């Protein structure tokens, strides 16, 4: 197992590690692995079934050919055997009459018994080819489907079916497979007269056992092949993702460096714009709106840069998780709700809170505060005047459950699939006017992931949305 971790360290997380988020490269990895394994698994299944089907058909065909040959050999002697059988029957009746035992039927006898009689009377010699092996037998029937002669140690006692086609047919009952065919003789008139029926049978127990061994062999061989294919697919996925991961790392580094480098000039622009706004009398009236636009744009750019830096730090924390401290989540939420009261009142929105006390989680206080801040801001942003935003915190099954529910515009199912994507906006025009960057909910998801939690959303267009965050709860540190 240690060797496996050295070979595939990035594909399967160790027990106790932070569960990674579904980043684009991870979705690509999972899809590639599923594609490889689905293709290889399908090929192995089709190959295994094909091999089994071909072998089974071939072995059954061999048995059928053998039965047909036996039936053909039996049909060639039916006329002769039937004639001698009838003579033997008449002789038996005559002997029974002389002895006064009444009429006695001959019943079914073997070819060997007929051969002994015929040899003794020098009437008939039956070829040795009719001596059957232990797993086969052949039976001769008259026109009334009464068994006359049989040969072979295999016992077949079932009666003949009511309907038998002229070409014969195969029938398998239990472990015995039989070929039943009528026998005809050509008349001088050109017509054919039915003499009787031939049934050649074989014990299929040996073939079924052979096919069972083949199934086990193919199953074990296919499983071993699938295991090696799985390891090979993991290695191939890992190798194919190396350039993608390298590009992603370069992109993350570029984002971090660019964001960091942008902070200084943006700070200078914001400072200069603030100074100019404090002395508007020095600025021409026609330029004052431009100064305000510069200040607003620099503020928005600064916020975007800070969000990008935060997301970059969140991504780095997935690989190197920081030490988390016990945090009273209820107190964090109460502080954020208090801060948002003024905004809600200004927008004429009822901000309700239902926070259960003494709920602790292990995390980062600033990040958890940012999580609550973004969720409540998002709810206030998309809730019209006279609407309601409810913040609920409760405890359930070792989980701290945070619910942020609003009566806003809601989302369609398609929008819900992209709500946590970076730079995605449900209402692009409105978001731009209000200064949104499209990173707020992406930051929320990143924070939740770093805290080993989960987030989901339920929404109905025109009725509102509900965001639910679940974080692992811990007992009070002093208890």
For this entry, give a set of tags:
disordered N terminus, single chain, 6-stranded mixed beta sheet, 54% helix, 479 residues, alpha+beta, 13 strands, 7-stranded mixed beta sheet, rod-shaped
Task: Please explain how this structure is put together.
With about 475 residues, the chain is an alpha+beta fold. It is about 55% helix and about 20% strand. The protein is built from 10 helices and 13 strands. It has helices spanning about 1-5, 25-100, 110-120, 205-280, 290-320, 330-345, 365-380, 415-420, 430-435, 440-450; strands at about 110, 135-140, 145-150, 170-175, 175-185, 190-205, 325-330, 350-355, 360-365, 390-395, 400-405, 455-460, 465-475. Strands 7, 8, 9, 10, 11, 12 and 13 form a 7-stranded mixed beta sheet that branches. The chain has a 6-stranded mixed beta sheet with strand order 1-3-2-6-5-4. Strand 5 and strand 6 form a beta hairpin. The radius of gyration is 44 Å and the shape is rod-shaped. The two termini are about 40 Å apart. About 25% of the residues are buried.
């Amino acid at each position: 197992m240690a060797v496996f971790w050295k070979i595939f360290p990035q594909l399967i997380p160790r027990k106790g590690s932070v569960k990674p988020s579904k980043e684009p490269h991870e979705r690509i990895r999972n899809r590639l692995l599923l594609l490889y394994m689905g293709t290889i698994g399908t090929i192995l299944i089709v190959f295994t079934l094909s091999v089994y089907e071909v072998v089974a058909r071939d072995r059954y065909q061999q048995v059928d050919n053998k039965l047909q040959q036996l039936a053909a050999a039996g049909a060639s002697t039916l006329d002769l055997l039937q004639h001698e059988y009838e003579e033997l029957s008449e002789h038996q009746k005559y002997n029974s009459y002389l002895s006064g035992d009444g009429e006695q039927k001959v019943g079914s006898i073997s070819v060997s018994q007929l051969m002994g009689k015929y040899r003794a009377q020098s009437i008939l010699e039956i070829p040795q080819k009719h001596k059957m092996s232990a797993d086969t037998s052949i039976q001769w029937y008259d026109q009334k489907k009464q068994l006359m002669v049989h040969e072979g140690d295999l016992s077949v006692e079932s009666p003949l079916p009511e309907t038998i086609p002229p070409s014969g047919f195969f029938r398998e009952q239990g472990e015995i497979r039989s070929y039943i065919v009528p026998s005809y003789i050509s008349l001088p008139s050109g017509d054919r007269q039915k003499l009787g029926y031939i049934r050649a049978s074989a014990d299929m127990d040996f073939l079924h056992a052979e096919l069972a061994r083949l199934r086990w062999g193919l199953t074990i061989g296919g499983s071993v092949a699938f295991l090696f294919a799985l390891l090979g697919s993991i290695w191939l996925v890992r190798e194919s993702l190396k350039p993608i991961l390298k590009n992603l790392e370069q992109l993350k580094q570029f984002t971090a460096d660019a964001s960091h480098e942008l902070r200084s000039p943006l700070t200078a622009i914001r400072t200069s714009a603030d100074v100019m706004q404090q002395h508007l009398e020095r600025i021409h009236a026609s330029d004052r709106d431009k100064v305000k636009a510069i200040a607003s744009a620099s503020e928005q750019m600064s916020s975007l840069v800070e969000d990008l830096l935060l997301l970059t730090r969140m991504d780095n924390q997935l690989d190197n998780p920081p030490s988390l401290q016990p945090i009273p989540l209820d107190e964090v939420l109460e502080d954020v709700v208090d801060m948002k009261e003024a905004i809600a009142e200004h927008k004429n929105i009822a901000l309700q809170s239902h926070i259960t006390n003494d709920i602790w989680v292990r995390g980062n206080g600033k990040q958890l505060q940012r999580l609550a801040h973004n969720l409540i801001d998002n709810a206030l942003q998309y809730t019209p005047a006279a609407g309601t935003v409810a913040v609920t915190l409760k405890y359930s099954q070792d989980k701290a459950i945070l619910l942020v529910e609003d009566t806003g515009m809601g989302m369609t199912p398609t929008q819900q699939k992209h709500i946590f994507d970076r730079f995605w906006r449900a209402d692009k025009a409105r978001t731009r006017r209000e200064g949104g960057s499209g990173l707020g909910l992406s930051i929320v998801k990143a924070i939740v992931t770093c805290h080993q939690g989960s987030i989901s959303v339920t929404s109905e267009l025109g009725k509102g949305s509900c965001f639910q965050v679940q974080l692992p709860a811990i007992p009070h540190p002093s208890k």
